[in-house]
Amino acid sequence: MAQTAAQQALDSLRVKYHLPAMLAAVIQPQRICYVYGGVRRSDQTTQITLTDYFHFGSDTKGVTSLLAGKLVEQGKIRWESKLLDVVPSLRTTALPAYADVTLAALLSHRAGIPPYDSGAKIRRLPAFSGTVRQKRQQFAAFVLQQPPVLPGPGEVYAYSNAGYALAALMLEQVSQRSWEELVARAFHKLKLHYVVGFPNRGDAQQPWGHWRQAATDSVLTPLGPLHPYHLQDFLAPAGDLAMPLPDYARLIQKHLRGLLGHANYLKAKTYQLLHFGKPSYAYGWGVLKLPATGAPVSFHNGTAGTFYCHTILYPSQQVALIVLTNAGGEAAEAACYALHRRLKQLYLQGQLE
User: What confidence category does residue 1 fall into, taking pLDDT thresholds of 50, 70 and 90?
Assistant: First the structure.
């Protein structure tokens, strides 16, 4: 992307919202444009590069759903397969309310699974042990003994990180591979780079996440690789992948092409189901409609509090956008949305050449 209005928009928003770095991709079926700037950590001057890894939190759910779509296409599982049929060891202790929970219900947040979306709730969990697959199964057994939750007023789904761990458990059972192995195989085939966890855990030179340690703080604090904050490994299918923007953008380009009717890693009809198979939230993707035309739009936001990822696809306009920053919080969200709006405006005006 040329040093134009797009770069100026990114630079001004990064300064306005006091963010260490921002990156964005404008994705068309045959072309991807990038704009980026800032530093890997706020206490140093090393500039980010396009090959740096950024954590995208709950946008990982789209990857878990992608894996599910592949296994469905291979005939190893069905969208309507029931959790307790696929993992029968859970039957003995699961509450009756969960008897008919399906893969589709888990991936669309319609299974009534408690959310486990805060550190306080996760810290109250019992200790799980063994391999990550074993811990995921122990977590599932525990969760299925908790009362189900209902959608809020006016809602049709109740968002649940735990539901994605349970969906991953189903995929593990039918494939006899861990979720981590399934990701590795899929991304190897797609030639995509990634890591599980925060980027600087394996390489301190990678971007550091930033947060405000207290609500009253005016300055973002970088989290070093030895900081104790992390996501539980058994919840990784809900939100713990990191990728370089070009790799993630190529993945989203495959989704966009699929939504335009071009099969690639998955069949076009599978992409359509993942993004728009249910109202409000399909399988790994939230659903909106363009106000003027009613054309469907899919999106997801992801943050573990230290990075922010905003992904949105406009199939009717043949474009998708990704905006990333290595900071969490309301300012990060506001900046990402503002940059998305400006870049889409420039795209529709034909000013990204």
Answer: very low
